[in-house]
Amino acid sequence: xxxxxxxxxxxxxxxxxxxxxxxxxxxxxxxxxxxxxxxxxxxxxxxxxxxxxxxxxxxxxxxxxxxxxxxxxxxxxxxxxxxxxxxxxxxxxxxxxxxxxxxxxxxxxxxxxxxxxxxxxxxxxxxxxxxxxxxxxxxxxxxxxxxxxxxxxxxxxxxxxxxxxxxxxxxxxxxxxxxxxxxxxxxxxxxxxxxxxxxxxxxxxxxxxxxxxxxxxxxxxxxxxxxxxxxxxxxxxxxxxxxxxxxxxxxxxxxxxxxxxxxxxxxxxxxxxxxxxxxxxxxxxxxxxxxxxxxxxxxxxxxxxxxxxxxxxxxxxxxxxxxxxxxxxxxxxxxxxxxxxxxxxxxxxxxxxxxxxxxxxxxxxxxxxxxxxxxxxxxxxxxxxxxxxxxxxxxxxxxxxxxxxxxxxxxxxxxxxxxxxxxxxxxxxxxxxxxxxxxxxxxxxxxxxxxxxxxxxxxxxxxxxxxxxxxxxxxxxxxxxxxxxxxxxxxxxxxxxxxxxxxxxxxxxxxxxxxxxxxxxxxxxxxxxxxxxxxxxxxxxxxxxxxxxxxxxxxxxxxxxxxxxxxxxxxxxxxxxxxxxxxxxxxxxxxxxxxxxxxxxxxxxxxxxxxxxxxxxxxxxxxxxxxxxxxxxxxxxxxxxxxxxxxxxxxxxxxxxxxxxxxxxxxxxxxx
Length: 672
Known about the structure:
This protein folds into five domains: 5-113, 2-Layer Sandwich (Herpes Virus-1); 120-170; 177-225, Double Stranded RNA Binding Domain (2-Layer Sandwich), CATH 3.30.160.60; 234-374; 426-671, Neuraminidase (6 Propeller). Helix 8 packs antiparallel against helix 10. It is flat and about 150 Å long. 29% of the residues lie in helices and 26% in strands. Strands 11-34-33-32 form a four-stranded antiparallel β-sheet, with no helix packed on it. It has a four-stranded antiparallel β-sheet with strand order 12-13-14-15, with no helix packed on it. Strands 16-17-18-19 form a four-stranded antiparallel β-sheet, with no helix packed on it. It is built from ten helices and 34 strands. The chain is α+β, with helices and mostly antiparallel strands.
């Protein structure tokens, strides 16, 4: 079996290479170059030995010497090295070489696997080329070994002469055939409407209504004749330069962070020394006081003991004298002892009186302290770590027709999510919706007084009941949302392990009779929309700024890149503002009623485009941040009725409805 292994391995490799494998199969997922000394992890992912070693050191740099494992760069599975006690820079060497990848690389580089004589190898002569092959034994022989070994044992076998077979043959490279992932057929057509290569079955199933579908050759000719390829190359150059600038910027940031860390660590160590010195002084003062008090009390007790012992001794002597027979005949001696005894009893009474006037409690000495001083939640004179986030001027990335902006793409309905639960007592009324970075969806159900968490596929994860009817909802960070409960309460909810937990409730300082509806979070402050104003409040509910409006603001959204806040104004009047923008204390109206009425839900995408729902006009409008470009994105013909809340995340758009037949549904659209 061992002798057959080289032939089987070669056949396997040649078979894989002949089937045109994925070109990424031989690439390192870290450096994206051809694998060098490929090391295979237990999860079967392979990496260059040098890349894997650098990755391990970088990932475990913050964990110190206690780390005993790392996560795979691809699947994030926890990987344990063969010998964790060895230096982390040596961990990559402990994993086995992926020989299959090595041989595939050799074959892809047209390196011929030489066939050598097996008997010669056993005798230590490595590299002797074989001239014959014994098929029954699957073994190669040189001319001498064929005569001396093979022909003696296998007289009936006629080995094959490899003289003309073992000539290196260089295969001509095969053209890469791009097959349709859906139908496994050659993609020979191009859909101009969807900007996709497609096969014949794709045309019949998905692109029959498309206006422009040409052959791939025609599209290729158009592409060559146009300037799009040159534009793409220019964009790639600019993107490459931008990446270099970004890498340099991140490297500088890392150096700054490393320097800041070292400075902070030295500051902490210095503070610890100062605290230790101060605590040593306090301990010495307390110790001296304790010892002094003990000595004082000890002296007092010793004096009392000495008095008692002396009086006891004299009274014992008096008692002993009364037992002496000679004293009975001594008249003067008896009288003297009697007088002495009376004086001793009087002294004893005086001493007892003296002791009686002392504190009757037993003297105890102890050390007591306030346990809250060392409570884990107490900032014990250690200050705090301050993270000051400052904006950086990152390089801009050029957009081209190859990567079309969201302002030029269309929305297509992906799915409808049923968000009504068996436990809901009423038909849902979703006034707020947020799309989470991890594809989760948070909906605020006004009718059932709860907030629900779903997966993108519609699977319900958990819910939480609230004290009021929730309206708008906004994202505070990746794991926290804030919900507006009229008249003036903000409920802050944490999302951890697919569970919702109420963290706090904040009361907003507003005038009596004022209801709060819209909410967004902008740089450590909440922005609240009311029936007559838009107000900025701190995290404890105190108002800092206010802008007056003529109609209610039901929803707000934040452009975190430029620190703009966009508010929708719920008005029928054509002369009234539909969308206004707040920035640096200034207000700018960017859209008037006309394209839509009764503006409700509003959100901002990654390209700073603004999306507004028109509840009375059954549509969704997309506008640029300054309002100069406006287009109607969705209408009633797209199934949109009385849209209320909207959330945009990447190329996904979520929309809820106030229409009676759609209140239990959230529409999920995707840009195409």
